Amino acid sequence: MKRASHHTTLPALLTFAGLALTCFTSTTTTAHAEEAKDDPLAPWRSGVKIRSVLPETAERHSIHSYFNTCPESPDGTQVLFYSSTALNGHTGEVHIVNRATGEEKTLVTNLETEDAHRAACQQWLSNGKRISFHGLRDGTWFVGAVDLDTGKERVLAKNRLSSWGQPNGDLVPIYGQHWDPGEHTNLELCNSATGEIKTVLTAQAVRDKYTPWVDKAFQGKPFIIFFPVLSPKADRVFFKLAAPGITRDPRGGAASQRLGLVCYSIAENRFLYQSDRWGHPSWHPDGKTIVETSFTLFDSGNGKGTRLPELPAVRGDHPSASPDGKLIVTDSTMDKFGGDANSWGIVLADARGGKHILLHSFKNDGGARSWRRSHPHPVFSADGKRIYFNVSNGTWTRLYVAEVGDGAAAGK
């Protein structure tokens, strides 16, 4: 009987090796795909396009107001900014520019601001149907709104300033002049569609709740609810307190004394927590969490903080979360990253901690010559595909945008 041969032919070996290589390649590709899928930073690691929103030849400031609000309209078609040819940025206009065509439109003229830091506090409201702003005109500080379909400007409140609402809602929080509030000491919400103003919390109620804290800081001086920021569903708000300072000139650090942070439930009419420290807080899209400096998240229900692990130390630090809550973007002086303090960078971090990238760095020691300098104030667009920030290099402070390539981020 002929014994069976155990010899394997060369073609068979090559076929087996090919199958093994195919299997290995497929497994490796799948593993890399899964790893990228689990890495919210992946779309931002390469192929990001960074440019100024206006042409570089534009001889003026184009300033995005703050990291609590996005300059891009909710539908992604327009970008809102403060425009000024004044070297200090204290007088100017509010404009929008069409992202697709570059066509620019002036919404507000003849406006003075406190500083170039937050400019006119311009923001989108009512799902992009209108914008609100504040400023000084003809000797009176006021909060205004412009309806985009008519271009008509309306005065919402006189002798007040505005803080931050939500782009999908009509409400804008307003407060008294912190250097000279007069009777306007309470937290008010103004409906930008109807003009109705409603008091939702009084300064006296804050004093009654936190008497030792308030009295120790202000020594019996009158104070106001200052700089309120509405949560995504407008059911909660955080704010600080302010008492008039030693001058009635709002353009200077001596205009008012500021204190701490208070979080309040509008829906439940109750105080949630109080803190001695106000860093640079913003709302997480979940409506319950406050994003703070040093990559720290606070539960707005009780003030408990959680520091995200293995992320770098930053300085400057105006953090905000992506629309899906998976990323946190902030700004920092570059001395924390081996550079110099006259340069700043945009830092993007995994909201779980552990991973981050330096998205962009730039000279930031020029721009508007205001007593309070403009900072980058990075913030995501509503679809998560773009990050807007200010750059103060040379004569002008300019609005920039970083955009992921090929629609890699969630959204449109």
From TrEMBL:
Keywords tagged on the record: Signal
PANTHER family named in the record: PROTEIN TOLB, PROTEIN TOLB HOMOLOG
Q: What is this protein called?
A: WD40 repeat protein
Q: Does the record carry Signal as a key word?
A: yes
According to the record, the signal peptide region is: 1-33
Per its UniProt record, what Pfam families does this chain match? PD40 (PF07676)
Q: Which domain of life is it from?
A: Bacteria
According to its UniProt record, which protein family does this protein belong to?
Answer: Belongs to the TolB family.
